[in-house]
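Thread: quick sanity check before group meeting

JM: Hey all, I'm pulling together slides for Thursday and realized we never actually wrote out the predicted structure for the chain we discussed last week. Dropping the sequence here so it's in one place. If anyone has concerns about the input, flag it before I start.
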Amino acid sequence: MNDNLHSSVINRPQRWDQPFDSTMSAESVVKVLSAPHFCSMSRNNFPDTLKLTGIIRNDCRIRTFDKNQVVIRAGEYVNSAFLLLSGEVAMLSPSDSHLDFIKPTVSDMPSTLSVLWGWLRRSHLPEVRRRVGEITKNAPLSYPIVNNISDMIDRGDATISRLVTGDIFGESAVLGRSEMTNTIVALDNVELLEIRWQGLRDIRKREEGFREYIDHLYRERGLYYHLLSLPLFSKLPANKIHELATLALFEVHGEFEWQKEFKSVSKQAKTEEDYNKVIQSEPVIALEGDYPDGLLLVRNGFGRISRYINFGHYTMGYLSRGDMFGLEEIYETWKNGKGAALNCSIRALGYTDVIRIPTSWLEINIFSESASQGVKQSLQDALKNNISISSQSKVKPIDRKLTEFLVENRLINGSKSMVIDLERCVRCDDCVSACADAHDNNPRFNRHGKSFGRYMIANACMHCEDPVCMIGCPTGAIHRSPDGVVKINDDTCIGCSTCANNCPYDNIRMVEIRDESGKVYCDPNGKAIVKASKCDLCAETTGKPACERACSHDALTRIDLKDISSLSHWVDR
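JM (edit): ok, ran it. Output follows.
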C-alpha cells in the first residue's frame, strides 16, 4: 500500500462473518444440542473462542427432504457430513450405479444471457469487488424425486442399507477428500443436520467419543463399500463381502497434511542422489524382494512403485484409488506352489490409505477351483489389467521418464492440469488475456511452471484428486463442487492465506481487492485486505476454459496427469 489515505476502510473479515446458513436460529441450536451425539458433548471441551454453540450456529444447517427424494448421489464430492435428525434414508450399494437417477453431476453451466450480462458488467480495474461483508445465503443443491424407489427395493433392483435417526453418512468422502461411494435416498420425510468440514474437524478435535465414532464409520463402512466397488470382488455374494470386511486390515501410511514436508523437501532435491534419498524417506508399504502377506488395495492417495537398479531407486509407476499391488505374485505362489517375491516396492506418496486382504482368504474364495465362473472371470480380468511392473520394458522410455517427473513433483495429483507445449507457444499471451476477460479483468494463472523437456506444467490450479489446499480453510471458502472442480467462494474467503500456503504447487495467489472506484480495501490499521485467487476452470462461462479456447497454436491443453497414455498421446500428436 502506497497511499492508505485513498483506501476504502472495512473491518478485516472473520471466520463466521458468513455463516453456513444465515437462518440458523437460537431455537435451531437448542434443537441440535438435544440431538444424538450432540446431547452427550461437553461444552467445557470447547474454548470461549470456539464454542460448541458457535460451531452449530455457523458451521451447520438443518435440511429437509421429501419422501423418495435423492439426498446425494454417488460419484459426487461433498464438503460436509450428515446426521439424520428424523426419518429414514436408504444407502444404495455402489453396484446400483446403473439406475437412471444415479448419474454423476455435471457442472451447472450458466445461461448465455447471464454470461453476456457478466461480461458487460466487468470492471476495467483488477480485483474489484462490488460487495464486501454482505451476508449471502448458501443455497444447497436440489435433487429429484424417485417415485418408484420402494418398488425397486421390493423387486431387488436396488440393494440398500437403512439409516435411521442418529446415523451419520458422508464422513468417508469428507475425511478421505474423495467422492461419495453411495447414493442416499429419503425413504420418508427426513430432517438432516449438515455439518461442513470445518465444524466436523473442530468437534472431532475436542470430543473423543464423537471422534472415535466417526473414525469407526470411516474404517468399517468405507472399507465395506470400497470392497464392493472393486471389479475383483464384484461377483461375490454380499455375505462374502461382509466376511472380507471383517478380516481385511485398514492401514494408513504417511501424513494427512503431507504438503508441508513435500514443499520443503522438493526445494532441496536437485540431483539424482537427492531424489534417491527422497524415495528412501517415503513410508514403505511393501518392499521389493519380500514375499507378500496379502493383497494391497489403495483406497485413497497415491503409492510410488519403484525398483532398485544399479545402486539407485527408480520410479516405475504409481498406484491411485482403486488400484492393487501384489495380486500376480500371490496368484503365482498359489498356482505353482512356490513363493514369488515382489518385483518392486510400493511407498506412500504423501497420505495413503491401504486395505490389506489376507492371502488365505483369496486362496479359498477367489483362486479356488470351486469359485463361480463369474469370480474366476473377475480374477482373470484383474490379472490382465494389472500388468506386472516387471513388464515395464513394454512401456516407451519417454513414458517412463515422464512418469518419474510427474511422480517426483506429485503432479499426478492434478486432474485438470494446464500443459503448455513451449515449442508451439509463441508467447502471445492470448491465454492470459482470455483468462482475464473471463474473470473481471483478473487473470487466474501464471504462464510459467515446472518443465519436462519442451512441456511445461503451468502454475494454474490443477483441481487435485487430493486437494490439500482445503485442509485448514477456516470458513470452507475453498471447496469442491459436486463435479470435483475446486472453487473459492469469494464472499466467505477471509484472506487468511492458509490455502495458498498449503498448495504444494504454488497455484493460489493472495491478491489485494478494490472497490468499484479502484481504491484498495484496507482494515482500520491501514493493512490491505487480500483474498485468495486461482483458476476455477471458467465455471461462470460456457464451454471449455477460456485459456484453452484462446490458444490458436494447439500449444495448451487441460489434462488429467494420472492418465499417462492420454498425456503421451498429446505429446506425440
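AS: nice. The radius of gyration is 25 Å. The longest strand covers residues 294-309.
JM: adding both to the slides.
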